[in-house]
Amino acid sequence: MDSNTNCGKSSATKKLKGFTLVELLIVIAIISILAGMISVATSTLVRNSRLETASNKAKSVYTGLQNMLIQMEIKHQDNLLDPVTYGESGTFSNYVTLSFIMDNGKIPDTEDFVVSDGSMTATLNYEYPNAAAPADDKEKEYRKVAKYITDNLDASFTGYVYAAIDLSDWAVDSVVFIEDYNKVKNAANGIEDFVPSFKTKTLVTASANKVPFCDDVFQQRDIYDGKETTVLDAAGTIVGFYPYYNDITGTTVTYA
User: Fold this and answer.
1) What is the longest distance spanned by two Cα atoms in the chain?
2) Which end of the chain is less enclosed by CB atoms within 10 A, N or C?
3) Residue 255 domain-assigned (yes or no)
């Protein structure tokens, strides 16, 4: 009986063993490693999602501008993409690039709207939409093309657009979309600091090799990560492309 009593007392007074300092440090280290892995995985997912969104916006611009071309053709207003319409002189090559900035569906007069065919470049600074009457015929014509663009893009569209358009077959060739348009404004060489390659469309007088392309989604990610050596200045920039160059090679459309 005494034996049982002593045994009970021993069990009741026995101290619980806790974690040692070494064990706590090991647990903290494991948690830190797991947190780091989760952080890297999360940031990669966020990056990929934003890049995919940017390319989807480039695709929406591509579709919108193609609709614009169809509307222009129906109304016989293809001259709106000719720099001569805005006061330039020369021979129109039928191959143009458009570059413009939109802020919440509006083309601001503080930013350049550029129409270029390689030899001629018209730079416009008119706000659209604008309730005031056009100041002159040049602004009146510009508002027509501005209306086509804003009507065919989302009402909240914001960003910088660079598009190459071949009017000989009345088609948009490629579109680049940049989420933060201020980066383009502040870049030393403009759009060229964000696009890894410019191609010339065969059998067409191209706009000074200004058909912009990115090979594929992997190159797009390398641009953001600063691993694409041809455009190191673009590191950290969300740039969307449509189409990717690898998606058009081998088709009836060829680029040199």
Assistant:
1) 117
2) N
3) no
Total count of domains within the chain: 1
Here the tokens at position 245 are: 């160059």
* Contact indicator for 103, 185 with CB cutoff of 8 Å: no
- String of DSSP letters for 52-117: HHHHHHHHHHHHHHHHHHHHHHHTT-GGGG-GGGGT--S---SEEEEEEEEBTTBB-TTS-EEEE-
Q: Are 111 and 99 in contact (CB under 8 A)?
A: no
The boundaries of the domain holding residue 196 are: 48-247
CA neighbor of 94 nearest in space, from 77, 79, 109: 79
Give the count of alpha carbons within 13 A of 231, CB side only. Answer: 28
Burial of residue 43 (CB within 10 Å: 0-12, 13-18, 19+) is: exposed
d(CA 185, CA 20): 58
Question: pTM for the full model?
Answer: 0.82
Distance between CA atoms of 58 and 241, rounded to whole angstroms?
Answer: 6
Q: Which residues on adjacent β-strands are paired with residue 165?
A: 96, 172
How many CB atoms sit inside 10 A of residue 126's CB? 17
